[in-house]
Amino acid sequence: MDFKAFKVSNDVKLALYRAMLKPRMIEEKMLILLRQGKISKWFSGIGQEAISVGVALAMQNEEYILPMHRNLGVFTTRNIPIHRLFSQWQGKMGGFTKGRDRSFHFGTQEFKIIGMISHLGPQMGVADGIALAHKLRKEPNVTAVFTGEGATSEGDFHEALNIAAVWELPVLFCVENNGYGLSTPTNEQYRCEHIADKGIGYGMESHIIDGNNILEVFSKVNELCIDIRKNPRPILLEFKTFRMRGHEEASGTKYVPEDLMETWAAKDPLENYTKYLMETGLLTETMEASFREEITREIDQNLQMAFLEESISANISNELHDVYQKFDYKEVTPLIHKRNIRFVDAISQGLKSAMEKHDNLVIMGQDVAEYGGVFKITDGFVEAFGKERVRNTPICESAIVSTAMGLSINGMKSVVEMQFADFVSSGFNPIVNYLAKSHYRWGEKADVVIRMPCGGGVGAGPFHSQTNEAWFTKTPGLKVVYPAFPSDAKGLLATAIEDPNPVLYFEHKGLYRSVYEDVPVNPFTIPFGKANLLKSGRDITIVTYGAGVHWALEILERHLDISADLLDLRTLQPLDTEAIYASVRKTGKLLILQEDSLFGGIASDISALVTENCFHYLDGPIKRVASLDTPIPFNNALEQQYLAKSRFEQELLDLMAF
Ligand SMILES: Cc1ncc(C[n+]2csc(CCOP(=O)(O)OP(=O)(O)O)c2C)c(N)n1
After folding, report:
1. What predicted TM-score, i.e. pTM, was given to this entire model?
2. Whose CA is closest to atom 7 on ligand 1?
3. Closest CA to 176 of 60, 59, 74
4. Is pLDDT of 632 > 90?
């Protein structure tokens, strides 16, 4: 291993040594504790420390690092008190997740470390978002994100690198190529010779670095960081290294040929570097012993602190309390001055006002810039707010949602337009796993609104017509908004953008240009969780939202003899259960109308809630009226048959007659 080629001061050489020794010694202790059954799982980074430590020391403390499961050296180099790491691994309060997540699955703004979610790939898009925030604020900061070579096979890797390249984001993509992804060797993972070769495909500079040579890692990364701060751009780094232990301890290394193990054992980053430092006289055995003694003491003391810490006692209200960030709703009242506008105009106005109010708000989506979005909602926005804040994206829903998360982590707000709500499936993972769970896991908000042009009745077939709110209403941590009128669309969008929690904002395409209303011209807010009683009656309660509201209005218009409460939910999460219960207590009958297919839709949950809470008030069975349990078809006759609207009238009359 060639250490001589790198010009590094003696002080830095010793600092690098000590910084590498610490994670190695903590890990050795962890392996003992694991055997004693005192910790549950361990993902070892032994043999890969030079990468974590070298990168972390090349970065400035205010620059974000996004590590993975083998990067203990990032955490120790950023000087996180190690008792907090021990508490984290033991699921105690002194850790970073109140016992809610394990190992390195956490972030800390204090130390500018944003840890992974298990799905690996989303990290890279999050790094894009963090870097974008720096770039928009003209801050000369680098963001470094780690991944293994296995995770480079995920679509997120491709999407994130592509975005970073197109947007020239100052991100260091650090791939630790350690030979195996769990048991899968590299020749079953990818076909090019080096992962660094992939940089060419993205138009991105890339380098191969010996990941076991701390001086090479530190010098090259340091040099690149200095350069990126002056000349922001993404760089792909492939660190050649090897995973010396099992994927996690229990899984072992039987599938690794012995000679490969021996070859890499001879390249151990700590042993070789120690030898080099001793040969050059920078390190003596006495010094080494005293460093080791110091670290042993630190480990023992900190471990003791963590062991002495009480176990967490489970408390339901604590858990429920942390699912969402507290949102201090501020009422902005609508003024009297109104203009008759379409649903689509109301959304556009709401967005525009928010862009004027928040100069840290960014809109991202496919074709949203000069083209104005496929529904023209952001028409003219580039002229008003510039291309930096109104951003066309490549076709990459997953990494864009992750980018939005990164923007939020780094102090920005964003609205992401899904071109059609159907395409959210390509960005589903970061929404339900990253955005939804971050506050509960480690107290981090996800200040992101995802706009969802949805709904059928427009002859657009199975992939441009779905109303897929139920994919999200069942995921704790998300808020789901679904307006039916222009005023609500405008006011609820304003609230969604103010709210620091992730909001899915459903906008029905069929309403865009067909529904008009007199809408207050000023920006105003409408609180979440407040249903709107559109009609008040005695005999039956109809609960619905979105296009269903208009179907119900139309049918009730035809049956003036039916005295019904018509409740427009407006938001599905939070759900105004009190308004539903109050109405059912009054009328004794409930019909829930939803455009979505029947099974597993929100109507089922509302039905269950009313059964549990209002059973004694019911004078008939609760009726759910929904679309067929088929995909949504294209042909008009088939689509009309599919939609709940075609059955609503008869079901209403049947329940009235019960
Ligand atoms: C989306 C997803 N698929 C599968 C897994 C299971 N899994 C966790 S780590 C891992 C191997 C990762 O390999 P690599 O990226 O090379 O990192 P390494 O563990 O070698 O450091 C796998 C298959 C996962 N966590 N997430």
Report:
1. 0.98
2. 182
3. 74
4. yes
